[in-house]
Specification:
The chain has 315 residues and is α+β, with helices and mostly antiparallel strands. It has eight helices and eleven strands. It is 34% helix and 26% strand. It is globular and about 50 Å long. It starts with a helix and ends with a strand. About 5% of the residues have low confidence.
Length: 315
């Protein structure tokens, strides 16, 4: 999976006038040494590039904390969650420089090591597609929602072709967010979630679960609090890899200073219900990594029945 760092950097390096202040982080359980080595080479490139392109210190990047944990029940099995975080100053052809961030959480499925492979392959395909689109020589404004939506469809096609070729049934959820200055663009399939916490309005779920229990809540067959104990709570009807075509839901939300964004797999929100998530986000520390740690520890205290993936962003 370390190859994701090399390929993304190759795309950026070819069009490096588009990006400064680049930061990237990939969280997965495999090939950690190789990922670290790739990051060192990326930083070497960025350091050399910074001598010719002045970093835009007037556009500070967001504070981000990300954590990945196998949980308790799955501690001896491959971690099927995968997280990606990238931040930079974006220099488009048709607009002034702006902050740009990409956050992705994917939760794989398929048994054995297929779930792990599915989430990592999907993240890789999505990230490569997004950066390739941002690097394109195009003077038109970037349609961020369309880029994310097409990127997830591209990742779905890659997983579907893999399944057809090898006769397997691996799949993954995915929730991705592109934040351009104070606008967040969201695209997703499955039940990995994105939240917004804002004072004083509180916690808002930005995604809609593509799951059996969410559909039952929507038609009034069960109450929202019954979702967590329902026998069909792990059944999702939309995810990557199942079919050649995939409907991808999108959304756009305007942000304000002081907002907190949360992206997570179901290993968090099934163990830590929304009121508790809200309480944790309502009392943030200065370091979002500590908030992410608190959320993970709460999920473990709640039973830790699945892998836990968390990205916390302070605006």
């Amino acid at each position: 999976m370390a190859i994701i760092q090399k390929r993304v950097w190759s795309l950026i390096h070819k069009r490096n006038f588009r990006f400064t202040n680049l930061q990237m982080e990939l969280l997965c359980d495999t090939d950690t040494e190789q990922v670290a080595a790739r990051l060192k080479r990326v930083w070497a490139y960025v350091h050399d590039f910074a001598q010719t392109v002045k970093a835009n210190k007037a556009l500070p990047l967001y504070q981000v904390g990300s954590r990945l944990n196998r949980g308790i029940a799955c501690k001896d099995r491959p971690n099927e969650d995968c997280l990606f975080v990238a931040q930079c100053v974006f220099h488009p052809c048709s607009a002034p420089a702006s902050r740009l961030s990409l956050f992705v959480v994917a939760d794989g499925m398929g048994g054995h090591e297929y779930g792990q492979e599915a989430s990592q392959c999907a993240v890789q395909a999505l990230v490569e597609y997004v950066f390739a689109s941002l690097c394109a020589d195009d003077t038109a404004p970037v349609a961020f929602s369309a880029v994310l939506q097409a990127g997830i469809q591209h990742a779905n096609e890659a997983l579907y072709q893999h399944n057809q070729h090898f006769g397997c049934t691996m799949g993954t959820t995915i929730t991705a967010m592109l934040v351009n200055d104070l606008t967040a663009y969201i695209a997703y399939a499955g039940d990995s979630r994105a939240y917004l916490y804002r004072t004083p309005s509180g916690l808002l779920q930005l995604t809609h679960d593509h799951s059996l229990v969410a559909a039952l809540v929507e038609v009034g067959s069960i109450r929202p609090e019954e979702v967590y104990q329902h026998p069909g709570r792990n059944q999702i009807y939309r995810y990557l890899g199942r079919r050649r075509s995939l409907d991808v839901d999108t959304g756009v939300v305007s942000l304000v200073a002081g907002d907190t964004l949360l992206l997570c797999s179901d290993g968090l929100w099934e163990m830590v219900h929304d009121p508790q998530i809200e309480d944790i986000l309502a009392h943030p520390t200065k370091d979002p990594a500590e908030v992410a740690d608190t959320l993970v520890q709460a999920a473990l205290a709640g039973g830790g029945e699945d892998n836990i993936g968390v990205i916390v962003v302070q605006v």
